[in-house]
Amino acid sequence: MGALTGKVALVTGGSRGIGRATAERLASEGALVAVHHGRNTGAAEETVNAIRAAGGSAFSLRAELGTAGDVETLWAEFDRLVLEHGPGAGLDILVNNAGISPRAEVEETTREAFDELFEVNVRALFFVTQQGLKRLRDGGRIVNVSSATSRIALPDIIAYSMTKGAVDTFTRTLAKTLGERGVTVNAVAPGIIDTDLNAPWLRGNPDAQQYASGFSALGRVGLPDDVADIVAFLASDAARWVTGQVIDATGGSHL
């Protein structure tokens, strides 16, 4: 039996990159995983199929965050599907991973782009969590995916960095709120990770690889599994005494 056998997990943005690696990692420990996606149904089904092929349990659900009725759609789908696939209604692990990260310096950031960033990265995360609390069992786990940009100044993604600062504050405050229920709330803050999002400038470019590797004290670019393993730890009973923390997952970047 895995460390998460009998648990039900929801991973937002679970179809690609860090989200997919996290979904697969939680499933490998025995959790039934709901793989949320916004638009790419094919990628979500690939993730679900990979989990099932490895002997795990998962299902996908769609809700485009940042649009009207997004949170209600997400949880309605979750409630419907979890009864078909799992040990009963309820949630044990919520991983808030979904987000967007357009690049723009302060002078280039439009009001529309700014609003969309906060709609997806902050508002949706807040209300997905709010509505998830009535489903989350006592002793549950919430893990938010933040970013090292909340502590490292990168001018070309200033508005994105602001959203991750909000996630860090939300994490610490919610941990205080939910402590009496035995629910832990933590965040993971990755650095540069080799995902599809970074592929256009990172993969197949030796100069970019060297540049990105130079940020880390360990001398390499991070992989989705590097972050997923930390999330799995925080979701497990081994992390029962860790809450309100933002865990650096950058391989020692900008020390």
Automatic annotation (TrEMBL):
What is stated as this protein's family in its record?
A: Belongs to the short-chain dehydrogenases/reductases (SDR) family.
Protein's recorded name? Short-chain dehydrogenase
What SUPFAM superfamilies does the annotation carry? NAD(P)-binding Rossmann-fold domains
Q: Which UniProt keywords apply?
A: Oxidoreductase
Q: Which Pfam families match?
A: adh_short_C2
**InterPro entries from the entry?**
KR_dom, NAD(P)-bd_dom_sf, Sc_DH/Rdtase_CS, SDR_fam
Q: Which residues form the Ketoreductase domain?
A: 7-195
GO MF terms here are: oxidoreductase activity
